[in-house]
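for the record, two folds in this file. i put them one after another cuz i was lazy. first one right below, seq on top, structure tokens after. the second one comes after a little note so u can tell where it starts
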Amino acid sequence: MNVLAPLGHLGQVVLALLASIGRFSIFAGQTFAHALRPPFYIREFAQSLLTIGYFSLPVVGLTAFFTGGALALQIYAGGSRFSVEAVVPQIVAIGVVRELGPVLVGLMIAARVTSSIAAEIATMKVTEQIDALVTLSTHPMKYLTVPRVLAGLIMVPILVGIGDVIGIMGGYIVSVHQLGFNPSTYIRNTWNFLENIDIVSSLVKGCVFGGIATLMGCYHGMNSGRGAQGVGRATKTSVEAAAMLILAANFLLTNLFFSA
């Protein structure tokens, strides 16, 4: 009996994981189904666009800029060992656009937006504001979840595009003013090296990551426990789950776009 106990515990963990995946899948399906049917809450949608997009620009911009600059320094230091320092513009461009831009923006959105959504909705549940919405004949999912998810699907790809440009600009500034690269040559090499598939993959990743981040925040907020402890647990779990799913989705999408 003692020998089988670890297997039983493992089975319980697996079943709980599968149940969580099932509940989240149903939640996501219901969200997109409600998004296709009126009523539409335009004010909530517009507020979500501002919160997710505009107010996230400073952290996204600073993260992308310093990452692009640090990447240029690292590539130059590594390339100098093999006398291939000239590849800095190309590698910075492809590294930022294909991987670092979308992933870092996704993780910043998970840290900033997912936690905020989860805490806000969980607090509404604890204070019975969601029950009040039901009393007023307002579907909580249409009012709280749909506007935030749609805003994430729209705004995060835009943030990724802006982050890509700022990240490349950070590499450009460091390369030109610190490493001695010719400005026009750097820009030409960057422009000529990037392909349409690189840009498309970056924006698609942004859309997927935005959906993951907002859905996770809404799901864990709606299913939070009671009290302050429940709100804290929902916030923590939503960020952890969003970050892991973003990294997993990044691997799958990279394999889809760039596998041999």
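(here's the note) second protein begins now
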Amino acid sequence: MSIGRNARTSVLAALIAGPLALGLVACGDDDDGGTGSSAESSAAPTPTPTPTPASPTDASPTDASPTTAAPAGDDAVVLAAATTAADAVPGGRLYSLDQVPQRWEAEVVDGDGRLFDLTVGGDGAAVTVDPVEDRDDADDRAERRRLLSEATVDPAGAVEAARTAVSSGTITGLDLDENAGRAVWDVQFDENAATEQTVTVDAASGEVLGTEVENEDDD
């Protein structure tokens, strides 16, 4: 059976249109898929959290406050005054130290037995009146040399020993003296007060020899 011309033309058109329609559908699917992938991959970035300022308690601790200076009557000040006085005279050693208002009056003896008077500030840190030699005779110088040669216990040792007898109170005097033919340190506490006491320390051994208590009723 023969097919007419118009029929052949319709069949040919259908054959051409079919693949073209399929190609357009495929292209449409690719475009949709691309659009979906792009949307999924372009998600909004997560915001970075803002750092929270440190509270005052997070700050580093400050340095400790300076140590408070020792009070004028503290043993450390007494010993500082003793050292300052002795260092003011070449080859000097403390012979006596007495507290007066705002200062310490000191006597220092050099290697030849010569005696020097001087003044140290109340905090014991510096000489406020320079040493002045006390003119005396050869016998006095010899006696001082003898006492100092026997005094193997220094002022710090004398104070430490005296504190075993008197644990409280303010040291107001420290003097090298002679007692029963031997060198001693007299460590005085609270001079001119109702609680005044004097502890006698053997300057050779550091032994406490006795404690004298001042009676406030004494004249």
